[in-house]
Here is the input.
Amino acid sequence: MMRDLLMAVAAANLAAGLAVVAILPFRRPMRPRFGARAVYALWIAPPLAALAVLIPHRTGDAIAPFVANAGRAAARALPSSAAQDLWATALVTIWGLGVVTSVMMLARRQAAFLKSLGRLTAVAGEGGVLRAERAVAGPALIGAFRPQIVTPADFDRRYGRVEQTLILTHERAHLASGDALVNAAACAVQCLGWFNPLAHLGVRLMRVDQELACDAAVIGRFPSARQLYGELLLKTQLAQQALPLGCHWPAKGQHPLKERIAMLKSPLPALGERRAGLAVAVLLAVAAGSGAWAASAKARHIVTKPDWATKPVPSDLTDVYPRAAGKSGLGGRATIECGVARDGLLIHCKVLAEDPRGAGFGEAALKLSERFKMKPMSRDGQPVAGGVVRIPIKFRIPTPPAPPRAS
Here is the structure.
C-alpha cells in the first residue's frame, strides 16, 4: 500500500511538472493574440494531468514491454520485498511530515495577514465590501469558500473615487471568476508537492496570469482608464505579509508588476479571438490530461515462467478433446491467454491462436483453463495476481486404452 501511495505521489507530481514546463513557451505569445484570460485558462492543465495519471488503466503488452521488463529488473535489484516496503514507508512518512509542515506554515501566514487587518466593518453602499481597522494591508479578496473584499482603513483617503472604482472592479472580477477558490486549490497543490520546485513555479506564474486576466477585465470595462490604472498599480503599496488564501492587490514581486503595466500598453484582442483563445486553452489542457493518462498506462505483467500448483493431466485432455476431430483422427493445437486471480486461478481467458481453425481446439483449450492453478509467486519473481499468462496446448489423438491381457 505504501509503495502504491509513493508511486501515485511521484507520478502526479511528474505529470503536473511536465505540464508546467509545457505551458511556459505559450504564455507570452498567447497573451497579445488571445488575451490574458486564455493564458490563465492554460493552468487547468497541470492539475488535470496530475489527476489523470491517478486513474488506473492498463495497456496491451505490445505497447510497453520495456517498461514491464524494467520494472521486474528493478524489483529484483532490491534486497527483498520487505526492504521495498521499508523504504516506501520511510519516504511516505517524510512526504507526510512535509505536507503537514507546509499546511502549518500557510495557516500561520494567513493568520498573520488577517491579524494585521484588525476589526472588519461593512462599508456603507458597497455590498460585500469590508473595511479593515488598520491601513497596513489591502485591498484584497480574503478567504476561499466565502471570500470577501477587504479595503484598508485609509482606502477613502488614499485613493480617488475613480481609483476606488477600478480597484473594486478588479477585486470583483476575482470574485466572479472564483479565483479565491482556485488559489486555495493552488495552496493544496503546493502543500502536497512541497518537494517539487515546478509545482511552486507553476503556482506563482498562475497567480501572475490570474492578476493579468483581472486587469484585462477592468480595462475591457473601462478602456479609457488605461493610464490611470497603470499609475494606480504603481501607487499601490505591497503589504508586508503574504496572503495564501485570497487574491491580493497587486501580485507580489516587481516582475509581475512590470508585466501588468506592459499589458496595459497593448490593445485587447477582439471578443472572437478571446473566445477562440479560451477554446485553445481548454483543448491544450484536455490534451495534457489525455497524454498524461496514456503515458501512465501500466503494461501488463506477462508471467513468462509460471509455477503451476495444478495442471491438467492426460485424461483431462481426453475429456475436452473435440468429438469430431477425435473421430476423424485429427490433431491440433491452441494458445490461450488468461488473467491470473489472487488465488492463482485463471480468469478472462481468450483464444489467441488455433490450428487448424474451426476444429474446436480453441474451445477445448478454454475448458482446460479451469484446471490450471498457479502458486502465489511465479518463477520470474513477480506476484501472479493481476498478471497475464499465455498457455500453448498441443492436442494429440487420444490413444485408446490397451485391451486387458488374457489370463
Notes: The longest strand covers residues 346-355. Confidence is low (pLDDT under 50) at residues 60-80, 250-254. The chain has 15 helices and twelve strands.
